[in-house]
Amino acid sequence: MTTHNIAVIGGDGIGPEVTAEAVKVMRAAGVDFATTDFDLGGQRYLRDGEILSDETLDALRGFDCILLGAVGTPEVAPGVIERGLLLKMRFALDLYINQRPFAGTAPGGTEPHEFVVIRENTEGPYVGEGGVLRSGTPFEVATQGSVNTWMGVERCIRYAFELAAGRERKHLTLVHKTNVLTFAGGLWDRTFNEVAADYPQVTTAYNHVDAACIYFVTDPHRYDVVVTDNLFGDILTDLGGAVSGGIGLASSANLNPARTGPSMFEPVHGSAPDIVGTGKANPTAAILSAALMLDFLGEGDAADRIRAACAEPVTGSTTDVGDSIASRVGN
Ligand code: IPM
Ligand code: MN
Q1: What is the pLDDT of residues 43-81, one digit of tens each?
Q2: What is the pTM of this model?
Q3: Alpha-carbon separation of residue 201 from 41, 131, 135, 163, 204 (angstroms)
Q4: What's the N-to-C CA distance of the chain in angstroms?
Q5: Of the candidates 43, 30, 38, which has an alpha carbon nearest to the alpha carbon of residue 4?
Q6: Which of 12, 87, 118, 254 is the pocket-test mutation for ligand 1 (most atoms within 8 Å of CB)?
Q7: Whose CA is nearest to atom 9 of ligand 1?
Q8: What is the Å distance from ligand 2's center to 32 Cα?
Q9: Which residues of the chain have pLDDT under 70?
Q10: Which of 64, 98, 138, 155 is 20 to 30 A from 120, comparing alpha carbons?
Q11: Strands 225-228 and 65-70
Q12: Which atom of ligand 1 is nearest to the CA of 238?
C-alpha cells in the first residue's frame, strides 16, 4: 500500500471547516495518506503578506495532490487572493482540466440527470490579458482579452473526448458562443471537429452558451460530457450545481492529466464568510472533491464508497454531516 502525500490548503472562511470533514471521511474510508497543512489565503496574506511565494509553490510540487477548501476574504480586494493563489496554482501547475461532475434532479424536474463539465482551466479571459488606462477618470479605458491557443484548446477537447469515449452514452457537447466570439469560437469549433474524427464512437453536439443555460435547467438529460472554455465553464458549473442539489454538493478536480505535478481538488463553492463558524457549511462538496482526488490517486474503491455514502440524505451541522458520512464509508 502506498501512503499518499496530500497538501491541505484549508484557506479562508468555511474552507478549513469543510476540508477537515473531507480528511475525516478519507481516514474513515481506510485510505493510507499523510497530510501537510499549508496556511494560505486571505487571512495569511493580511498577517504577513504571503499569498503564494515561489518557495511555497515549489514545496507544493512535491506532493501527490492538493486538497483546497476555499480562498478569499472580504477584507482583501477582489482578485488579489483569487489571482495570486488559486489561479496561480492552476497556471503554474498546469492544471489544464477543471472537471466538475453533476448528478441530481433539477428543481421542478422528475428524472435524475448525470453529466460532467470539462472546463478549460489555463486560458481564456482568466489569463489576465489587458489593462487599465486613466483609471478612475471619465476617460478610463479597460480591456480584458481572452487567450486561446490551439495547444490549450486541443488538449482540453481531447481530454473531453477520451472521457466521453469511456462513458456509457459516449456523447460530447461543445458549448461556446461562436455566433459572436468568432475568433476564439472558430478555433474551438474547428478543433472540436478535427479531434472528433479520432473518436467516431462519440456522438457530438454544439450549444451556444446562452442556450445551454436554458437546457441546464429545462433539459439537463441531454448532456453526458460538456466541454467549454474557462469563463463559460465557471458560470455554467455554478448553474450545474444549482440544478443538481445545490452548490453545497458541487465538487471539482483541477487536473494535470500529464501528472508532471500535483493536481488540486476543491469544492466549486467559495469561502462563504457569512456562515463561517456557524456549523451551517455543507462539507459534502469538499468530501466529494476528496473522492475525485482518490479516483485520481488510484483509490477508486474508497472513492465509490464515499460517493455512495454522500448519496444518502444527511442533516445537521458541518461536523454532524461529516460524522454521518464517515460512519457509512466503512472499508
Ligand atoms: C471557481 C471559482 C474561481 C474561478 C474563483 C474563486 C477565481 O469561482 O473555481 O469556480 O472563477 O474559477
Ligand atoms: Mn466559479
Answers
A1: 999 999 999 999 999 999 999 999 999 999 999 999 999
A2: 0.96
A3: 44, 44, 52, 12, 10
A4: 15
A5: 30
A6: 87
A7: 268
A8: 31
A9: 1, 331
A10: 64
A11: unpaired
A12: 10
The pLDDT of residue 313 is: 86
Three-state SS for the chain is CCCEEEEEEEECCCHHHHHHHHHHHHHHCCCCEEEEECCCCHHHHHHHCCCCCHHHHHHHHCCCEEEEEECCCCCCCCCHHHHHHHHHHHHHCCCCEEEEEEEECCCCCCCCEEEEEEEECCCEHHHCCEEEECCCCCCCEEEECCECCHHHHHHHHHHHHHHHHCCCCCEEEEEECCCCCHHHHHHHHHHHHHHHCCCCCCEEEEEEHHHHHHHHHHCHHHCCEEEECHHHHHHHHHHHHHCCCCHHHCEEEEECCCCCCCEEEEECCCCCHHHCCCCCCCCHHHHHHHHHHHHHCCCHHHHHHHHHHHHCCCCCCHHHHHHHHHHHCCC
With cell 475525485, the residue in question is 292
Cα gap 266→269, rounded to integer Å: 8
Task: Select which of 159, 177, 223, 229 is catalytic.
Answer: 177
Closest listed ligand to the CA of 271: 1
DSSP β-ladder status, 65-70 and 171-176: unpaired
Say what the pLDDT of residue 1 is: 66
Among 9, 12, 76, 82, which residue has the most ligand 1 atoms within 8 Å of its CB, making it the best to mutate?
A: 82
Question: How far apart, in whole angstroms, are the C-alpha atoms of residue 304 and residue 294?
Answer: 9
**Angstrom distance (rounded) from CA 254 to CA 91:** 10
